[in-house]
Amino acid sequence: MKIDTKTFRFTDTGSFGSKAMIVGVIGLLASAAGYLVNSEQFFHSYLTAFVFWVTLGLGALFFTLIHHLVDAEWSVVLRRVMESTMVTLPLLIVFFVPIAFGMHDLFEWTHVDVVAGDTLLQGKAPYLNTTFFLARTAGYFLIWYLLTRALYTRSIKQDTSNEKGQTIRMRQISAPGMVLFGFTLTYAAFDWLMSLNPHWYSTIFGVYIFVGALLSSLGFITLILLFLRGKGVLADKVTVEHYHDLGKLIFAFTIFWAYIGFSQYFLIWYGNIPEETIFYHTRWAGSWKYVSMLIILGHFIFPFLMLLTRAAKRSLKVLAFMGFWMLFIHWVDMYWVILPSMGAHGANAHHGFSLSWMDLSTMLGIGGIFVWLFWKRFTSQPVVPVNDPKLEASFHFVNG
Amino acid sequence: MSTAAAKKETIPLDAPLVLGNPSFSDLSETIGGITEKKAPVQWFLLVGFFASLALLFAGSVGYLFWEGVGIWGLNVPVAWGWAIVNFVWWVGIGHAGTLISAILFLFRQRWRTAINRFAEAMTIFAVICALLFPMIHVGRVWVVYWTLPFPNQMMMWPNFRSPLLWDVFAVSTYFTVSLLFWYVGMIPDLATLRDRATTKVRKVMLGIFSLGWRGSNKQWKHYERAYLILAALATPLVLSVHSVVSFDFAVSQLPGWHTTIFPPYFVAGAIFSGFAMVMTLAIVARKIYKLENIITINHLDVMNKIMLATSLMVGYAYSCEFFVAWYSGNEFEQFAFINRATGPYAWAYWIMITCNVFIPQFLWSQRIRRSIPFMFVITIFINIGMWFERFVIVVSSLANDFLPSSWAYYTPSMWDVMTYIGTFGVFFTLFLLFLRFLPMVAISEVKGVLPAANPHYRGPVSSGGQS
Q: 10 Å Cβ neighbour count for B346?
């Protein structure tokens, strides 16, 4: 793996991409076998993996949007990594196809007999019905496609044309883009996750998923940069100052995640209305209790303490570990949201959680392909936006 | 910049933060001079006017203490009326200061230096106005100290499970930290004024409050460390205060109050209204005191963008609440929201939506973001809209609760109105005193963002600034 230090283009992309693809294909094949063994387990594991990678891409989209909106300087050098991640997001629509076929296993509200005996679900039918559900998903991906493409093509164009105007243009796209991002993420979270428990509702749910998405993408970006650094790519350009800022963001949004998670839990606990408490009740029954505790500890207390000091945020070893940790705990979080609703009338909730090999195979399957596509995209262009007017300042950025 | 260029080109990516290329002493003269010269005649007129409004507050509250909260328009079930609306409104306004001085500081937004002092002062005065309302609302105001947990021979403790008690902690903590932050930030400027002082009284007073500041490297090092730590401590407070205020409503089971998005939604709304009030005041003050080169049109443009962003967040929360109320399938939830939009208080609901969601959309246009008259009018609308937001939440949910036989239309009494207007008197009197006696812009911080503060500075240049 090598880049030209003048043009910042890859001269040798290494075998990382093809390795990722092989892992992805093996994972997908194994998962397909899993479908034949236990389709219900397969679909739930698969949805978890799908949502994990989609939210990771959405987090990168948010990072790109906010980077343009606030005219950030320090993160210019990371821009290509986030852009390549976000532009991979719309391709994940391919992985939605199995979910469309597995809706019967996943979503209780698709069962005609259940809806017929449930006045609440009848009331929700104008929203929760298969046609509209699929149309909405198509709509989310279409918006993500148009938005990421609009930003990415301009960014690439700036590399060759050296137009300062593209920076302004990308900022102008980002403003309405942020509005679209907020609404699509929220309703995707309502559709794919909240409607798994069709009686349950929480207005903050979209924000909760958003914070997890951002944290996972921060972890991913940190890991990719550290991986490149290990290979000698951008090692002198992305300095400890940039990692320090990434660490600060992970730290800050860990607290923000806890704030949002606590708000949701606390208000439901205090209000104590059965149709709301059911969500937490099932996640505190049997061995699910340990998963809930792991989330409290692992999504807040542990990263909070780990990243509290300045020295930790500037230690690449700590950040490498925390990058993996944020990905892991985001997966646990998605697992915790999705899996308890498996089985008729949430049977899984009462039996406690039981990990399946398909949890791993689906993650590796979608993840391998995601990383492969990301890598192909990333290596096809200069690793930094070479003509960004703030690139030079970003190289020499120092925390005050 | 010609107007034609302004129309086409957005703000240059590296616009200078301070216009007119002033020197360090120019800044001390411009800002410090305001507190030293005789106040303009308009200042005396305004103080006279607002101090009499403050008297109106004193009179209304005096009668309230004599007679009891029965003089207000409260009824059952609307036991929380204007007093709580005003409390939440004022606390919300008190959010911009700490956001600007703490969060924007951590985000390295150096443009904040022009407005932070100003906004922090506004925060403190707004929180004072806010705190007045729950105090006078308790009825027996002479035992208001019972809200504090202190060991006493009556073995009496406040109810720790009550969000009203958490309010006492949250708001008083916020007030304390904001005051400390404001004061610590002001020490170097007070020392500047002390060094410029010509009268004995000013020398002694400013000498006491500048705590022996000499501006040595060592002092600056400690000072900046303290400022950073205070910023880090104040940041969670920006979110926690209004979250706790939202708990007052959201921990209940009342439709329209009990919804999980309330904490972040209230915080976004607070920042929204806080920025609107900062803008309203800053637009007037920069004109009267000729600070156009320090609080530039670029600053106002950026603040308008933040208002637009927070308006969209508030709009997001409104729409989320409305959608989930329908989606919940709960007929009481559904009624609460349809009743808001079409029921007896629909006029208030639509004022809120118009002022908070529709009108701020004008700020998408750069020309409007850079037009003083337009933005002034928009900030006024937002101030009004955010008051109505709290009115809609408090009154419409309470008035039409689970028991239709007790539904009655809520109307405030003249005492409600006079008390509210009176707090404007308190707020503006304090604010005018601040403008008169303290440096309204952080002199030392603005000096820090001048080109001359850059070690690589090579003398005055015709245009451009530092990165």
A: 15
**CB within 8 Å: B261 and A204:** yes
Better-predicted residue by pLDDT, A390 or A97 = A97
Q: Report pLDDT digits (tens) over B49-60.
A: 999 999 999 999
Query: Would the pLDDT of B467 be above 70?
Result: no
Strand partners, A10: A3
**Whether pLDDT at B29 is above 90:** no
Crossing angle (nearest 10°) for helices A316-338 and A205-230: 140
CA distance B101 to chain A (A): 16
Asked if B259's CB is within 8 angstroms of A203's CB, the reply is yes
Place of tokens 């009154």: B395
Report the chain A residue with the minimal C-alpha distance to residue B324. Answer: A203
Q: Tokens standing for B194?
A: 């002390």
Nearest to A141 by CA among A24, A54, A77: A54
Set of chain B residues whose Cβ sits within 8 Å of the Cβ of A392: none
Which residues of chain B are within 8 Å of residue A255 when distances are taken between CB atoms? 236
User: Under a CB-based contact definition with an 8 Å cutoff, are residues A56 and A220 in contact?
Assistant: yes
Question: In this structure, is residue A110 part of a structural domain?
Answer: yes
Contacts of B108 in chain A (CB under 8 A): 400
| Structure-block tokens of residue A154 | 């301009």
Q: Distance of CA A385 to CAs A3, A35, A395, B48, B284, Å?
A: 14, 43, 12, 59, 42
Indicate whether A127 belongs to any domain: yes
In angstroms, what separates the C-alpha of B236 from chain A's closest C-alpha? 9
CB contact under 8 A, B259 and A175: no
For residue A70, the chain B residues in CB contact (below 8 A) are 107
**Residues A254-287 pLDDT 10s:** 999 999 999 999 999 999 999 899 999 989 888 8
Q: Minimal CA–CA distance to A209: which of A180, A229, A184?
A: A184
d(CA A20, CA A374): 10
Is A254 within 8 Å of A114 (Cβ atoms)?
A: no
- Check CB contact under 8 Å for B251 and A70: no
pLDDT the model gives residue A232: 87
Q: What percent of chain B has pLDDT over 70?
A: 95
Task: Tell me whether residue A256 is in a domain.
Answer: yes
Alpha-carbon gap: B443 to the closest alpha carbon of chain A (Å): 20
Residue B263 has pLDDT above 70, yes or no: yes
| Least Cα separation, residue A202 to chain B (angstroms) | 6
Work out the burial of residue A54: count CB atoms within 10 Å of its CB; fewer than 13 is exposed, 13-18 middle, 19 or more buried: buried
Q: How far B327 CA sits from the closest chain A CA (Å)? A: 6
And the tokens for B47?
A: 């103080």
- The answer for residues whose C-beta is within 8 angstroms of residue B113's C-beta and 6 or more apart is B17, B441, B442, B445, B446, B448, B449
Smallest Cβ–Cβ distance between B251 and the set A264, A271, A275 belongs to A271
Residue A400 falls inside a structural domain: no
Nearest to B329 among A123, A172, A260 (CB): A123
Scan for tokens 């998670």, then name that residue.
Answer: A261
Indicate the number of domains in chain A. Answer: 1
Bond before B134 cis per omega within 30 degrees:
no
Name chain B contacts of A183, Cβ cutoff 8 Å.
316
pLDDT score recorded for residue B461: 53
**Would you call A104 helix, strand, or coil by DSSP?**
helix
Average pLDDT, rounded, for chain A = 92
- What interface predicted TM-score (ipTM) does this complex get? 0.93
Domain span including residue A139 = 2-395
Q: What does the pLDDT average to over B213-236? A: 91
C-alpha distances in angstroms, B205 versus B63, B199, B201? Answer: 37, 10, 6
Residues from B in contact with A at Cβ < 8 Å? 10, 13, 107-108, 236, 239, 243, 247, 250-253, 258-264, 309, 312, 316-317, 320-321, 324, 327-330, 364, 467
Would the CA dihedral through B17, B94, B382, A67 be positive or negative?
A: positive
